[in-house]
Model the fold of this input.
Amino acid sequence: MNTGSTNAQTAPVPAEELGPAYVVVEIDGAQCLTDEGVHTTFAEAFGFSSFYGRNWDAWIDLMSRLNDRSNDCDFRVPDKAVVCMFLKSATTIKEKAPKIWEDLNECTAFVNWRLVKVGEAPFLALSFYD
Done:
C-alpha cells in the first residue's frame, strides 16, 4: 500500500542566508476606525510620501514596493525580511469598523499574492490578538 510519504527531507536554510528575520511595525488599531484614520496611521508608520493617495489601491501599491529601494516611503524592508504589522486594539477595529478590518486583511493578502505572482517572496504579515 502506497501512503504517499517519502523519505525526502528538506535541508534547513543556514541562518546567515536568511538575513534579518523580521521587522515589527506597531499599528494602533484604535486610530484606524475611519478611512482617514487608517491611511494616516499607515502613512506615519511607514513614512509614505506626501502625495500618497490615501486609499486602498495606493496602499497596495506602496506596500507592494516596500522592498524596492526607489519606493516612495521612508521605510525599506531589509533583504529577506518579513514585515510584521503588529496591530494593537484589533478587537476595536473588528467591532467598530468591520469594513476597514476586512479591507486591511484582504489588501495585506493581495500584496503577498501580487509578489508571489511576479516571482518575488511575500514579506507582509499581519499580527493581532486582542
